[in-house]
Design goal:
Number of strands: 0
Number of helices: 2
Radius of gyration: 17 Å
Helix content: over 70%
Strand content: under 5%
Distance between the termini: 9 Å
C-alpha cells in the first residue's frame, strides 16, 4: 500500500489514477466497439470472424478491467 505524506499528495495521486483509468477504459470500449463492427461486417460477408472476435474482445475486456482497477484504486 502506498504511503502518503499529505492529503494533497494523496488526492493528486488518485486523481492521476482516475484520469488514466478513464482514458484506458475509453480506449478499451472503443476496441470492443470496433471489434463488434468488424465481426458484424465479416459475418454479413460470410467470412470467418473467430480471430477478430477472440482477440479484440479479449484486449478490450482486459483494458476495461484494468481501467476499473485504476478508477477504484485497488
Amino acid at each position: 500500500m502506498k504511503q502518503f505524506n499529505s492529503a494533497a499528495e494523496k488526492e493528486s495521486y488518485y486523481a492521476k489514477r482516475r484520469q488514466r483509468g478513464l482514458i484506458v477504459g475509453a480506449i478499451g470500449g472503443a476496441i470492443l466497439g470496433l471489434g463488434f463492427l468488424i465481426q458484424y461486417i465479416l459475418y454479413m460477408q460470410g467470412h470467418s470472424f473467430n480471430a477478430v472476435m477472440y482477440s479484440l474482445t479479449s484486449i478490450g475486456i482486459i483494458m476495461v478491467l484494468y481501467a476499473g482497477v485504476e478508477i477504484f484504486g485497488w
